[in-house]
Structures are given as C-alpha cells and as structure tokens.
Design a protein that fits this description.
By secondary structure, the chain is an alpha/beta fold. Helices cover 56% and strands 13% of the residues. Strands 1, 2, 3, 4, 5, 6, 7 and 8 form an 8-stranded mixed sheet that branches. A hairpin with a 2-residue loop joins strand 2 and strand 3. Helix 1 runs antiparallel to helix 2, helix 1 packs parallel to helix 3 and helix 5 packs across helix 14.
C-alpha cells in the first residue's frame, strides 16, 4: 500500500512537470507567433503600397512586354496565403495546449487570433483578379441548389423545355420567398465528378435556355417575381448544342427577358461566363457576390487569342476587369454582396444570410413599380451599358 501511494504521488508530480513544460513551450510559441503576425502585417502593408504604384501600359497589347514580375507576384500571394494558414493552425494548437484557467495566456491567444483574423481579412479584401477567379471556381462554392435550400421555401422544380429534353445544367422551379410566391432558376455545376458530368459542369444546352424561358414566361403569366442565380463557365460549345440552335436560344432569351412584365433579380454567385451567363441574366437588378467574376470570355480564352498562350491567363484576368469592384465601377452591375471571411465556400449559410436582405430589399423596390415602368427601366439600364466607350 505504501509503495502504491508513493508511486501515485510520483506519477502526479511527473504529470505536473509535463504540464508546466507544455505551458512554458506554449508561451514561447505564442511570443514567436505574435512576432510573425506583426511581421506579416508589415509585409502586407508593403505589398499593398507596391501594388498601387502606377504600372506599364495596357498588358493586352500583343506587342507590349509581359510584366516579368507577374510570376513573382503570384508566388508572393501564394506564400502569404500559406503563411496565414500556418498561423491559424498554430493558434488553434496553442488554444488546445494552454490551460483554460490561465487567463493571461488565454488573453494573449485571443489577441493573436484577432491579429491573424485582421490579416486574413485584409488579404481577401485586396485580392487580385486571378485570385478572385480561383475563389469563384472553388468546388465548394454555394450553387443554386444551396441558395434555394437556404433562402426559399417549398421549392417545386419543373423540368423540360417542351421541345427536346430536360437540361440538368439549369434548374428552375416555383418557391416562396418571405411569404411571396416567386420563380427561381439558375445554373448548377455539381459537387463530385458524377454530379458534374450529369450537370454538364453547369454548361447549359439550348434546351436549358428554353426551359428557363418557359419558366420565366410562366412566372410572367402568374405575376411572380423571378430570381436568377448564375454560376457557369459559359454555354455548352458542343456540336449537339450547335445543331439544336444554341445561339438562337440565347438570343431569343435576351429579347424575351427584356420584355418580361415582372421583376427579374439576378445574382452572379461564381463564374458569369459570356453569353451562357447573359442568356439568363437580363434583369432589373444585377448583383455579384464579392469573389465572383463576370466576363465576356474566360482569361484562359483571352490569353489564347491575344498571345496564343493560355499560361498568360493571369495577366489577361487583370486586363479584362472581371471582378465585382471593376464591374461596379463600370456600372455594369448594381451592387456587390459581401461574403463570409475567406469566401462563400467556407460557410454557405452565412453567405445566404448576407444575400437575403439584399434580395428582399430589391424585391420590395421592384414590386412597387408598374409593369410598363419596370420594362422601361430595364431597357434603359441595358442601353446605357458600354456608353463610356463612345
């Protein structure tokens, strides 16, 4: 008995020494972590000041020199992102190691967590066009199905274009939004490989655009506002789509959407690619999520045409002005909708919560207008686009 009690006390003393050593190590790591966070903040400020310096002439000139620092800048961005991820992991590890009763250590960790959060917020607030494009294409980004589940009630999907077939790349259906019956439609990419193949990677064919138009005309018949969610690299460019009149289907949608006597509210949630996006995006209000893109051509396609080299896509992305701030400045969209910290892919529910009041406010504004005035405003809105080139 005496031997057992002595052994028990010895084990307890060893455990206490281990805990003290662990807390000491945690405090040392915490000091290093705070120093790294401060250093990273200084580097961010320096990099941001360098980015706002006047640069060379238009990088889209085929004869112009390609900025030699593009690859270096890209690597710096990636390195900053890796460093922030490492800092976040270290903060989480320190939180686990630190004694919850140690108020001083807990306060230090909370301060470091706030510093890292501020650093991350600043990083995502000053992303370049190429980095935002990568976020827009993130495989975990919320798609139409996610927004339907989080924002609407009693969604009832409709299928088929009444001519050829149903197109899974574009979904449409009736639902309720804040107690009001509405029509919802949008592109759907799919999560895994099987779903993406079934949804054709969100690239609609003519039957998809005709199904969308059928749904919108049904909404107009019953005086239901229309919500559109766009996330597509473009219309499907296959031979079968061309044989069934891809260009005609998109053009017909453009004309008929401009005449719809009900509110049309469009949200670019990821990629808004070329005519494939525009074919369902003629709306009274056009919103873009913070890290979405909207463009007449993909940066890879643009680089292939201008330089015959798709690896120059990052330079083309900057020149094309595809980001939400660029398009808002050009008055091609109406408003930018904020995303959760780190991007919409990190928290679908938070992304929907940020979008919900914007859609509700717009719906209230548009339903107060008479149908002729609504159509007139929509016509004027699109006629004004591009006049800064004249």
């Amino acid at each position: 008995m005496w031997f057992c009690s002595e052994r028990s006390r010895a084990v307890k003393e060893i455990d206490k020494e281990k805990e003290r050593a662990k807390r000491l190590l945690a405090r040392k790591r915490l000091r290093r972590l705070r120093a790294r966070a401060r250093q990273r903040r200084l580097e961010e400020e320096k990099a941001r000041s360098e980015r706002i310096q006047p640069g060379p002439a238009s990088p889209l000139s085929p004869q112009g020199a390609i900025p030699a620092s593009a690859a270096v800048a890209k690597e710096r961005e990636n390195e900053r992102l890796r460093e922030m991820i490492a800092l976040e992991r270290e903060v989480a590890e320190l939180s686990r190691l630190t004694d919850s009763a140690d108020a001083a250590a807990a306060g230090d960790i909370e301060r470091v967590r706030r510093e890292v959060a501020d650093l991350k917020r600043e990083f995502y607030a000053h992303l370049g066009a190429w980095q935002r494009l990568q976020l827009a294409r993130h495989p975990q980004r919320p798609y139409t199905e996610d927004f339907v589940r989080l924002l609407f009630e009693n969604f009832s999907e409709i299928h088929g274009d009444r001519r050829f077939a149903d197109d899974p790349a574009l979904m449409a259906g009736m639902a309720w939004f804040h107690g009001q019956p509405v029509m919802v439609l949008g592109t759907q990419k799919g999560r895994d490989t099987k779903q993406r193949v079934a949804r054709n990677f969100g690239q609609a064919k003519p039957e998809g655009y005709r199904k969308a138009l059928r749904a919108m005309q049904l909404a107009a018949k019953f005086n239901r506002p229309i919500f559109v969610f766009v996330d597509t690299p473009g219309a499907f460019p296959g031979i079968d789509a061309e044989e069934r009149g891809q260009a005609e289907a998109i053009a017909h949608n453009l004309r008929e959407m401009s005449r719809l006597p009900v509110p049309v509210i469009v949200t670019i949630t990821g990629e808004g690619g070329s005519g494939g996006a525009l074919g369902i995006a003629v709306g009274d209000r056009i919103f873009m999520l913070e890290n979405s893109v909207y463009s007449v051509i993909s940066p890879e396609g643009c680089a292939s045409i201008i330089w015959r080299d798709s690896t120059k896509a990052e330079i083309a992305a900057d020149a094309l002005k595809i980001t939400a701030p660029d398009l808002l400045g050009l008055k091609l969209i109406d408003e930018i909708v904020s995303e959760p910290e780190g991007g919409a892919h990190t928290d679908h529910a938070a992304a929907a919560k940020l979008l919900d009041p914007v859609l509700e406010r717009s719906l209230a504004e548009l339903t107060a207008l008479a149908a002729p005035r609504l159509v007139e405003q929509r016509y004027e809105k699109f006629r004004r686009m591009g006049q800064f080139f004249a």
